[in-house]
């Protein structure tokens, strides 16, 4: 996570000059970024298009290896659709486990040790149901383990009802041979069961393909394809759901997939402790009256004494132009290694709560800013009805609110990233950029809640600065 500190040898005094020079370069580029760190190529496909794509690969593999399409499909699925690896594996182990997935018709020439059943007068005893059936009613996979038709039907029916498809294997104990699609469909005759099997199998094929990802949106059947399976943001063209292409969860830049998984697991385990310690109300640091946060902005003004302070650290807001870095940064105890086990445990909890409180605060701010967005829409409607401009004249307010949500969303996910970073110059640079982004977001949030037409130029300039700070942080620290 922390990278190589040698790539980031910048003295503390140089952070501001280094960062501001990047901001100036970004502003010179204009409104359209040419190197958006979050952009990458992908396409949204329908089920029919993906089926066609997979069938073309199956046909190609079937011809190249001279195997049945069903076996080619099973090989592709098992080795995650990596054609070079499949060819190498198949040619190097022509009679191995994967190839044993081929169907071998039952006949009297099947070796006795593979039958695992007794035979008398042209009949065999099935090792599952112990019934005597004519030899021709038995079927086996390439392993040669023979079972009667009725037992195969029952076996496949149970497996499919539990959502298993490509993972269905031989019934013999300890046998690892899988059943190809054509073998299963030759056994299963009920239309509803066949349809379930084919639907589950298609889902397995998509999930095993590194270039494909189901859209997680509700009731959406779109499948996203990208030739670069990166941890970047995807927006479904159909349902507009956005998610991380690599892991399929909520987009989480700059935090990588494994780290966000660890963080969410930790939050699930420790969130009750954090919620107990972190209250929804705080006292004004000047007059000590109880204040409840009702907006996304962390710039608070006491309704009683009009004192301006920071919701997170309760410090005077006037000092945040220079000290915001200290507000978002966690100060490690330099002597913690020499403390007792209990002291170390308390310090670990303190560190976690520092990052969790800020993570949760921005989550709450995002929810509150949805209410702010609705108030902006109501305000615009009122202005238009009073003939104080048109919807187009006031569109910049909606653009600002949407950008604010975008920036705060990124800021929220900087805290898990910082929590797991190792101490060093790279972390110091990250926390500096994080603090600068947070400062600009709060400035933007404050201005949006108080914006009028006369503030349009100032607000749009603040939008540009906030987005550039967000983009530079992602460009420097987005790991894909």
Automatic annotation (TrEMBL):
CDD domains in UniProt: BRcat_RBR_TRIAD1, Rcat_RBR_TRIAD1, RING-HC_RBR_TRIAD1
GO MF term set: ubiquitin protein ligase activity; zinc ion binding
One matching Pfam family: Ariadne
Gene Ontology annotations of biological process type: protein ubiquitination
Subcellular location: Nucleus
InterPro entries on file: Ariadne, BRcat_RBR_TRIAD1, E3_UB_ligase_RBR, IBR_dom, Rcat_RBR_TRIAD1, TRIAD_supradom, Znf_RING, Znf_RING/FYVE/PHD
Record's GO cellular component terms: nucleus
EC number of the protein: 2.3.2.31
Region (Disordered): 1-21
Keywords attached to this entry: Metal-binding, Nucleus, Repeat, Transferase, Ubl conjugation pathway, Zinc, Zinc-finger
Catalyzed reactions per annotation: [E2 ubiquitin-conjugating enzyme]-S-ubiquitinyl-L-cysteine + [acceptor protein]-L-lysine = [E2 ubiquitin-conjugating enzyme]-L-cysteine + [acceptor protein]-N(6)-ubiquitinyl-L-lysine
Acidic residues composition bias: residue spans: 1-16
Record PROSITE patterns: TRIAD, ZF_RING_1, ZF_RING_2
Domain RING-type: 122-331, 287-327
PANTHER family recorded: RBR FAMILY RING FINGER AND IBR DOMAIN-CONTAINING
The family this protein is said to belong to: Belongs to the RBR family. Ariadne subfamily.
Stated name of the protein: RBR-type E3 ubiquitin transferase
Organism, scientific name: Folsomia candida (Springtail)
